[in-house]
Amino acid sequence: MTLLDEAAAISGEIAELRHAIHREPEIGHDLPRTRDKVLAALAGLPLEVSQGSQLTSVTAVLRGGRPGPVVLLRGDMDALPVTEATGLPYASRFDGVMHACGHDLHTAMLAGAARLLSARRAELDGTVVFMFQPGEEGYAGARYMIEEGVLEAAGERPVAAYGLHVTSQRLPCGTFSTRPGAMLAAADQISVTVHGHGGHASTPHRAADPIPVACEMVTALQTLVTRKFDVFDPVVITVGSFHAGTTDNVIPDQATFLATARSFSAESRAALAEIVPRLIGDIARGHGLTAEAVYSAEYPVTVNDAAEAAFAGETVADVFGAERGEQAEFPLTGAEDFSFVLEQVPGAFVMLGACPPGTDPLTAPTNHSAHAVFDDAALADGTALYAELALRRLIRG
Ligand SMILES: [Zn+2]
Ligand SMILES: [Zn+2]
To answer: What is the whole-number distance in angstroms between the Cα of residue 279 and the centre of ligand 1?
Structure first.
């Protein structure tokens, strides 16, 4: 039997685990219910299992019967603050929390791969590290796991690391997508407070109105994107939150806004961190006001190693058929904290279509939507790919 056959044979149990995780979603670093389900799924397998101290991570090490290198497989486990509206029989039992990004599938698939590879332990040419990670959605869980030693869990560093991510739209179910180089954007946060001084709205010349100045900053940030950055090394800045004032006849003391900054190269990211605070400060000064602009580095660019991305593409073609894989033309503007792993270990991040049957991938609700549905049919494929990537990469040495 191939690993794909074996994954298909246990797909019912993988789906059960996925549904159990989906029913009880948890946010951030502290995912005790999810961790316990993972530990139960791994129980009895020949793994060295350890848990995180700052977060409910699970690291499992499988030492093969033959000597060889270390390969790391990663699945994230956390959910989002979204109220589920799918109506699925296994929908979230918790108000305001939903596995809207499909991390329940990643966790179940990685546990499935641990089971399949454990059964082949004797013939494994090296060691596999299974990284079950909390806190992907903005909590940098991968960075904490690295600090706590996940890259040294096997006693030596992995030679390669792979991550999978399902998508509820764009890709037809069971189709894989990856690319060499930038795969996902860097995502940073710009937090701005404009300090003026308030007064009566009828006499703005006696006040220092922060609202038009903050508006000018929002516009200037868009101009900055088009005038300071190479169109072939794109940057996206979106102001997603803007707050000032209470009513129409009062000038407030301050205005605040938050923006996300997405970039695809270390150079553009460094330029953003330097130019944005300066631009904000200069605009405020130009109007006789002051402003604080904090540029917070969040997730780096997710960069696929060219050779590892090619290897992942070849593995997909060999296991599933060439028609089931694509090389993505462009990176995605989303971000991933698997980027912290790929900064230290060459590897590849691969997308997997999980759009339900009868749904047009082009119009299906996206990841993070309250209506996002990820089909169980992708589970066996993702499990098999995780296992095949590890098995084959170990053979290559
Ligand atoms: Zn997400
Ligand atoms: Zn995600």
So the answer is: 30
